[in-house]
Amino acid sequence: MRPKINRDLFTFQISWRVRFSEVDLHKVVHHSQTIKYLEIGRVEYWRQLGIGYQDFLDSGYQYVVAKVECNYLKPLTFDKIITVMVRVAKFTRTSITYEYLIYDNNGDCAIFAQTILVCLREEGRRPQPLPKDYLQKILDYEIDGSVEYEETKFAAAKR
């Protein structure tokens, strides 16, 4: 079943050519490469917002991937240009959900994916509230009203 996707909600995209080292014997992108594609898209998204991941690390924060979900709709192949689109779909007190669309050179959606990243501080490695300045940059960049905020039971109980 194809997920329902609104391409108009995606605010960032980056394109590149599929490399030979990324494909299997049939010249189709190996599924393990998809995770790399998502990371490239996400890091470039941050860069677009003026958030360098190294700066984030230097401030004592880090993100860990808590969940990855990929829906493979059609194959990506060697030497074709692909486009990775990225958006923030939701955040909670300590996590951010990213959505990704990966299009092939014909403009067809080949992959729909979602990742959940949890914010940690280096000293303690426990979930931490997302930095407010980071969230503000995301909210300023994304389409008004398109990012869902889910208050967790944990956060509500601590009030």
Helix % is: 10-25%
- Identify the CATH homologous superfamily: Hotdog Thioesterase
Could you name the ranges where pLDDT drops below 50 across 5 or more consecutive residues? 154-159
**Morphology call:** globular
Strand count = 6
N to C succession of SSEs: EHHEEEEHEH
| Overall number of structural domains | 1
Mean pLDDT over all positions: 91
Total number of helices:
4
Mind describing the biggest β-sheet?
6 strands, mixed
CATH architecture assignment? Roll
Terminal Cα separation, in Å?
40 Å
Q: Output the structural class.
A: alpha+beta
Give the C-alpha Rg: 17 Å
Question: Which CATH top level class fits?
Answer: Alpha Beta
Structural notes for this entry:
This protein is 25% helix and 33% strand. By secondary structure, the chain is α+β, with helices and mostly antiparallel strands. It has one domain (7-157): Roll (Thiol Ester Dehydrase, Chain A), CATH 3.10.129.10. Strands 1, 2, 3, 4, 5 and 6 form a six-stranded mixed beta sheet that branches. A hairpin with a 5-residue loop joins strand 4 and strand 5 (109-121). The longest helix is centred in the first third of the chain and has 18 residues, at 31-48.
